[in-house]
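Entry: DUF7963 domain-containing protein
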Amino acid sequence: MAATNSGTATPQPAENSAEELAAKVVHKRYEGLVTVRTKAVKGKGAWYWAHLEPILVHNSDTGLPKAVKLRCSLCEAVFSASNPSRTASEHLKRGTCPNFNSTPRPISSVSPSDAVSLGSPSSSSAHHHHNHRKRSSSGGRGGGNAGPVTTSYQVAPLSMVDPGRFAVELAYSPVVSVAASAVIPASGGGGLYAHHQQHLILSGGKEDLGALAMLEDSVKKLKSPKASPGPTLSKVQIDASLDFLADWVYECCGSVSFSSLEHPKFKAFLNQVGLPPVSRREFAGERLDAKYEETKAESEARIRDAMFFQISSDGWKSTSNGHVGEENLVNLALNLPNGTSVFRRAVFTSGYVPSKYAEEVLWDTIVDICGNNMQQCVGIVADKFKGKALKNLENQHHWLVNLCCQFQGFSSLIKDFSKELPLFKIVTENCLKLVSFVNTKSQVRNTFHKYQLQEYGRAGLLRVPLGGYERADFGPMYTMVEDILSSARALQLVLLDESYKIVSMEEPLAREIEEMMRNPHFWNELEAVHSLVKLIKGMAREIELERPRVGQCLPLWKELTVKVKDWCSKFHISEGPVERVIERRFKKNYHPAWAAAFILDPLYLTRDTSGKYLPPFKCLTPEQEKDVDKLITRLVLREEAHIALMELMKWRTEGLDPVYAQAVQLKQRDPVTGKMKIANPQSSRLVWETYLTEFKSLGKVAVRLIFLHATSRGFKCNWSFLRWVSAHAQSRTGIDKAQKLVFISAHSKLEKRDFSSDEEKDAELFTSANGEDDVLNEVFVDASSM
């Protein structure tokens, strides 16, 4: 086969024959590959071009190029040029090439003894090519006594490049000099090497260090063909370790990709600790299936043990604003009477979800779990979505109690304030005006950044919400308000700077901004809005963490009302408009079960003057008292309705034995938060099941009602996983694996009562909120300055 290098001239075609046209195409392909390789050698392309060289194959009769091939510069093998990447993977990475080593050892890892042995002519080593093998009848280089014929390997001393050979003196960095001098023979190497030690450079510059490390590694392997054994683990230890590794990968649910299991560094880590390499196909296949079946069996067993349950449905309220193609995850879990939760299934949705579809999904889930015993499901708690899905299901099945998530109720209250309180609109407009001016006016921006660095050690633009004030979500507005308040000192210093005075003489807007920022009323309104939103967000976060039961809903809204009244007094805000906003949101979220659970839960019994512990009917409005009667009669059989009401009257007048009431209401300090909490939350239900047995009809309602959760917030999925789902949404296999991953991860998180996402944990880690975080930030600052 005739082959030419890149310097061979291609004959010019004399006429446009088919063969000549084909030759042009071949030559164009060759020139393209040469261009790609040239860029790659300069560090702007794939690594394998350093070892693969394009060549032209000519027709022996016509002399025209007929094909392009790739030649391996390490072993001279020739391959098709149709897919260089695949050629590199199969020939170089998979070990087909005898002279390629994909894991060069750093120069710094060579010991002095290795360096002496490597450089000495007497070292018993070998060049990596098999044709350099020689036989010798002597035992060493010194001409000793003849011995038996043995096979030995000789390595010539490394060539040292003398700068005098070049017309221009070549500079070299101390790193190259030190690294290269590591392989200079300490003895027996001849005077030439010692003489040029201080002037040593490598002809390829710093880029030669990797190649030199590969050479040393090859020599080392040939000298010591048997690698030192790593840690030895038994089969039981290996299996247990891989099981823990698999659990970690699955429970991270997308944060750790399956492909990362085959990352060279991770494979090196496994080898270092004595574990075999793992296959991503096995982890995404057999192991995943086995773990899913194990987790599902455990989940099913816990559901069978419970007499009834509540469905928790979170995710209908999409965070993607309903954009087409954006995947959202709806989680369906079961809240059990003993206070635990069990994951059931995940539903992947995209864009707007009709209320009817949600209704069908919820009912199908109930049917799938309960079979013929539908009343095993006592209700649903779901985040708020438009439509009447929850109400329709409750009307069709009288035993269901379907609630709206209180976390969403409090979060929606922020939107209500932003839309209905003039204060929010005034503050938002002022902030937008200020932020736009500071960010866009270069002289002011530069001055602002100067004082940011002076006061806070950092500088940046003030964040502006996309879409302006008309956005439904107040979150971006709140971020802008926070930015202004946190930069208040720097903004005040900007007004005192000479550069701002010059700008204010030229622009009326600058004078308007200055007048606004010097007005204490502006800052008072800004702080008022920030304080109210922070108050509501804090209560919503508490709801998310504490996961209150339905009986706590009325006390929560009462607590909110009291706190907002204090806020009005502090910032001199009229109470009327604020109270009306809260009242409207309360009515939208209110359910009669709030009042009924509040009355039936022994946790809220109050002691009267006679020493009895009685239900707090005096805390209810007349309408709410009627709601209690209506709900109880709906939840029992028609023939038991009058009995249940009679028992309710008895409960109202007699209440609970003081000793049992005090046992239920016993509190203890939480070692984590330091707050006083109920010692045994399950006592409320257990009292009805074991002590208040005379209330046969009312007791059935109580035990099924007071354990219900008031929020649907539960398992949170990682954004990286949702992006992966979106990429595989049309693949049946991909969705099946996604379902199994979510199930395993959610089951683990619910079991640990871990309701935060990895993103939130990372945000907490990197937020400078305490001394530990300050130390962490100092480490980053020190590292960045090195």
